[in-house]
Amino acid sequence: MVKLSVNLNKIATLRNARGGNIPNLLQVAKDVQSFGCHGITLHPRPDERHITYKDVYDIRSVIVTELNIEGRPTDKFMELVLNVKPDQVTLVPDLDNVITSNSGWNPIIYQDFLKKKIKKLKESGIRTSIFLNPNPEFIPFVKKIGADRIELYTGYFSIGYFKKKWNCIDPYIKTALKAINYHIKVNAGHDLDLDNISFLIKKIPFIEEVSIGHSLISEALYMGLENTIQSYLKRIQT
Ligand code: PXP
Predict the structure, then answer these.
(1) C-alpha of residue 225 to centroid of ligand 1, in Å
(2) Which of 2, 39, 176, 218 is least buried, going by the fewest C-beta atoms within 10 A?
């Protein structure tokens, strides 16, 4: 079964726009879990412009599903996740001055850096994943780094989906199959929505988990959160 992890950064962004506590992030975290999602993803960025570090500590106590924390492995981020001990940590490059994550790691260039971070997380009993562009040649390096999973950056897929579905999915299928051969499990995320998710899951049915934020929250403006989550759950059933 493919799991749906709901990224709550957009809820925090809305709250931060007014500086108060509306919408109430903790209540939303409880609600999305009661609506059937399999997990929650939080992505504290170095400037805390969406989810704050304090949010992460607060939300921990209301998690009854799985918590995935993703982000750039700065010292502050590592301290946070080693204290909070989520079920999964996804390492993301998070370059400076980007609006949102726009690329995965190059595990060849960052091999030593990532290996050290992954080792620390694994010693703490946390499942690890690294955000990766679709490129099968990267997989042996991910193995050397020691990550349990990859999260395929699906930004390119979401753009290509409207042009040439088959061309854009091909590198994802090849990378995912190679990962499985290397006993590395596969997550996926970024720019997934109710339109493109079914095709992705149909072509790579062994994806473990998708993490979705921006479109899911935007779709919920029209459909409501519960209905939107239920719609995703139907589409990711394999
Ligand atoms: N995965 C990673 C690593 C991300 O950085 C993000 C955005 O925070 C997502 C998934 C979710 O992307 P989206 O908000 O486009 O659904």
Answers:
(1) 18
(2) 218
For a substitution probing ligand 1, which of 102, 190, 228 has the most ligand atoms within 8 Å of its CB?
190
Question: pLDDT-derived band of residue 166, with 50, 70 and 90 as boundaries?
Answer: confident
Any idea which residue has 């570090």 for tokens? 53
| Mutation probe of ligand 1 site: the residue of 37, 69, 70, 158 with most atoms within 8 A of C-beta | 70
pLDDT value, residue 209 = 98
State the average pLDDT for the chain: 96
Is the C-beta atom of 213 inside 6 A of ligand 1?
A: yes
Average pLDDT score over residue span 163-188: 94
What b/e readout covers 73-109, taking b as 16+ CB neighbours within 10 angstroms?
A: beeebbebbeebebbbbbbbbbeeeeeebebbbebee
Q: Which domain holds residue 95?
A: 3-236
Catalytic residues, by residue number, are: 43, 70, 190
Is the pLDDT score of 97 beyond 80? Answer: no
The number of folded domains in the chain is: 1
